[in-house]
Amino acid sequence: MNYYDSIVIGGGPAGLAAAYQLKIEGAKVLILEREARLGGILKQCIHDGFGLIEFNKVLTGPEYADYFVNAVKSTKIDIMTKTFVTDLIKTEKGFHVTIVNSQTGVQILSCKTIILATGCRERTNKQLFITGDRPAGVYTAGTAQYMVNIEGLLPCNRCLILGSGDIGLIMARRLTLEGAKVIGVYEAKDTASGLARNVQQCLLDFEIPIYYRKTVIEVHGRERLKSVTVADVDEQMKVIYGTEKEVVCDGLILSVGLIPENEIAEKLSVAIDPKTNGPIVDGQMMTCIPGVFSCGNALKVFDLVDHVTANARIAAKSALKYIQKESETDG
Amino acid sequence: MQNQMYGKRDIYSSRRRNQQRAKLEKKLKKVIDGSINCSLYMDSVRITGQVDTWQKVVKAGQIAAKTNFKEVINDIFFKENSQNIQFNERLASTARYENWDIAIIGGGIIGCAIARELSKYDLKICIIEKEYDVAIHASSRNDGMIHPGIASPLGSLKSKMNIRGNALYEKVSKELEVPINWCGSSILFKTTSSKLIWPFFWIKAKLIGLKGLEYMPKKSVYQREPHLSEGVKWGVLCKRAGVTSPYKMTVAYAENAIENGVTLKLNAKVIGMKNINKDATLINKGEISEIYVQDQTEKYTIKPKIVINAAGVYSDLVAEMAGDRFFSIHPRKGEVVLFDKKKADLVNGILGFMGDRSSKHTKGGGIIKTYEGNILVGPNALETFERDNYETNRATIDEMLRLKLPQIKGLDMKDDITFFTGIRASTYKEDFIIEASRQLKNMIHVAGIQSPGFASAPAIAERVEKICDKMYLELTSQKMVQDVNFNPNRKAIPNFKEMSLEERNKMIALRPEYGEIICRCEEISKGEILDALHTPIKVDTIDGVKRRVRAGMGRCQGGFCMPLVMEIIHSELGVSMDQITKKSGESKIAAHFTKDRGENK
To answer: Which residues form the FAD dependent oxidoreductase domain (chain B) (predicted)?
Structure first.
């Protein structure tokens, strides 16, 4: 029976918390996850600092994720991994979710509500218009983190980190611990974007310098990265020409912003807030399409996973109310 | 001597040619630099001297191109192009040699299309490509437009080849299973007075045999392209314009050629040639008896019956190795910016804006919706002495976007997903050269193939086939024999994204890997990536996979799928994870394994 009260798209922290909440309150729920394992990006965040609010404990990413993965599994929620959503359609009674999976092929599932918990992606060097060559060795911090923590691959020997987002700061420490030289973190603004505790624990404690009002404007190297050109920027973040300097490195790691991923939401014409890049929602996390809810980093980029969990619960509770109301009107 | 050398082919008398030469020299001395001299080489003019900027070198070449000489050999020296001239490494024969009927130098769209055309015959053919894959240079660095043929000068070879190439592509597309979107192109005008030139378009179309040309009043223009900014007064619609994937087309040509017996030699660089008659003239012709090739492991000799020069921006250097350099290439860079597919609906076809060209040497493509639905802006046109420097430049990209973005309402700089550079292989005459060498019995030059070169490729291959047929007969007294086993059809890797739900289910039932999406932005399945690794050309790089199935070409630029593609390459081909490269050579993705991983290995 492919009918669900709620289909949760995304099995990261937001999706897991929302699905768990829905399930324990009696809803029939399905989690769809495109990767092989649940847990989302937390799987690769092997540093600690998670769970202070939620559990009053200091946990690593995988530990935090495991708590919810186990909770979800104990409630016998339907879970489909390695499953990709290709389409969402609004129907009279709810929604059709088209999925593709190597075991079951293409399937169309029906549901009353959809929870969008698709997370976010990283801004790339191309979106910053960093010009020059196209060598290997330029990676976003999340990709570099995946390489180190999941694949056991060191992306570079000597790198520069552009942007002081939290993953960038975490990666400065991680790469240092793995034996790479981190020349410094370059930040175009005059303050760090990441948490103060990460600046202290990941940079200052390791004597990694952070340079403000500086950015990378070009990358060089036809095959592997050989150097980057850095330059000063003014208050409007405009490059001050004449201040260019070449820095020799074989890695450029970017931590220059996260963008909520809502391509699948756009199939339902969910209205997107141009400021946050996430759906426009009411106080209860419902988007402009009744029955479609958004939570976690797909809604807006959160600093702490604990806040993501709390936010997902609000979305789940709101979805429950919606399901109940719809059932009543159905009679 | 001169007259004897040129014989009947010479349409100008020696005296007339010398007058022209002297006149040109006087002009160049006055306008460019006093050091410039002109001399005659066959029916081309050669200019030499020394100037301080590349711009002056190009300007001198362009002035020389306005004369009636066949081509311009530009050997004007400026401080940074010295290496370009001293490249010729002549070698003695190597121990190992191979015999080939046809040796094609260059594995771009032209070399691959020629190889495929000639693979219809019972001939031993090889393509010698210096890079690790086909379509590395101009063939993967263009907008994939199949031009209608209206823009090329009347009577030019470009014009003929474009019209014919465009017509042939429909069949080629079916045979090679590379789809084309015949979306049409609009040439747009911002003044009412310019309407006077419509009859000229109409007449030109008649003359060149171009069908599907239509006058569009303002209303039709905006009906067709509702997101166009205000100010367009009228337009010309060319229905015969299309877009396709230029790298997929090149790969398809190469694969079909290989399936029909052609050998593709990758990482193989031509480093010299032997002409058995060093004093070759138009009457006493020479012949290339040996081509010296350097690959990753050895130097060896190819003994060819016929040599085809399809070396793109290096075609004049290859001609020089053969002792037959009668033209110069002046590389012209073009940058393009690609935008997110989300904005696909803002443009319906190909848009060119008249009176808005960043240079007269662009086709004015301007804004294009690519086959995949990304809006592409560009290319611009920048002269450069570097033949393969693909660096992009912020200032020139900004300038291009400043001019072109306002043409479309709702297209924003922040919607960009990537940008890159291509380099056009232009001659000073700015036309194609597709001809048998005039002083070598067994060489064919296919040079100066810039825009609309991609659109002309099938026609260029057809023309080379004819030249080759005649040359083969002259050389061997035998006709080229059709290969009865020739199969024009090539199977493409199934495109999961374009399948219907039923087709998807069938495919997954047959091959479950097709149900596992690896590249989320472009919806590319594991099955497609696996298939890409097992095509006729060896693929073991991230970019090689990208050129075949587009994994990593979406908005996240491979951030999510690159490690997954690496894992597939690793498990399927046995390449160690730490050795996988982006584009061969030194471009390893990772520096090495991490400490733990390394110790456990």
So the answer is: 101-464
